[in-house]
Amino acid sequence: MQRIFSGVQPTGNLHLGNYLGAIRNWVRLQNDYECIFCMVDLHAITVWQEPDQLRSNTREVAAAMIASGVDPENNIIFNQSQVPQHAELAWIFNCVARLGWLDRMTQFKEKAGKDKERASVGLYAYPNLMAADILVYKATHVPVGEDQKQHLELCRDIAQKFNHDYEEDFFPIVEPLIFGEATRVMSLRDGTSKMSKSDASDASRINMTDDVDTITKKIRRARTDAEPLPMEVAGLKGRAEAANLVGIYAALNDSSSAQVLAEFGGQGFGVFKPALADLAVDKLATIQDEMRRLMADPAHVDGIIRSGAEKARAIAEPILREVHNKIGILQP
Ligand code: TYM
Fold it and tell me: How confident is the model at residue 274 (pLDDT cuts 50, 70, 90)?
């Protein structure tokens, strides 16, 4: 069986983009692959995190995965730091990846902003840790949203260089799995920027923990143009906000943008937005109930994470030992 690895940063504000672009796809893949899903706390601390918040956000992401339908019995769910082999392999990859490769990473440029001198070294080396997350399990497939594509290309470059340097097909060249109608969910306030946990405006995203009123209000106030919806997908060209809302509807409803337009084409947002709000509330309600139930019993969630970490360590340990042998690191 082929192996999947994917991760979410426990930085709070888990949103509809994370769900539609990633977690929901994991649920669909879990029976066809051996799956390892991770709360990447070491990635989270590349920017400042309040310690108590980090702890509870880590549990919340685990709860969201389980509540969305990831089965914790048959899949591995854990937080990165409980498996020290991630950080160890990341250091080795710091010595494999070239500065020029990291200099090209657009996410670093976006996150570091104008004052990159003040960004943490961890933020810069972030993609090397991500490659280590995947390759410490020799995972073959990585289901993610569109925004992680460049990082996965770097992961392939690292595997290729390592394989070349040590003369063997040791690491797999991973395949990204980017699919569905919502591979890049955009902000509700600006159709040209992606929905993001770190957007200063809470109105820009639908959080997995938003209540009915909040979801309804955010969708009602979502930015749009004044035109009715087109009859065909081609008519969404140049209408980023409309395309985004139609894509969200399609993804939530397991249909396609074409099908959504077959139903709503010619209608205005006065009709479409309330329908979208009802659908979002309906689809998220069961997940939210289950998340609340899980969050009320943190010891249970911690138990799932602990046992996931044990299983993950059992896979990662021998692979890292092989890496050490290849490099020539003296083993006891
Ligand atoms: P993160 O925590 O930003 O996002 C988690 C997952 O959600 C997807 N995603 C989106 N999909 C569609 N529309 C959006 N607006 C949107 N925003 C986020 C992301 O693509 C991701 O799949 N670097 C990763 C975490 C990570 C990882 C890994 C992923 C660390 N190590 C190894 C895969 C494999 C990140 O920051 O995801």
Answer: very high
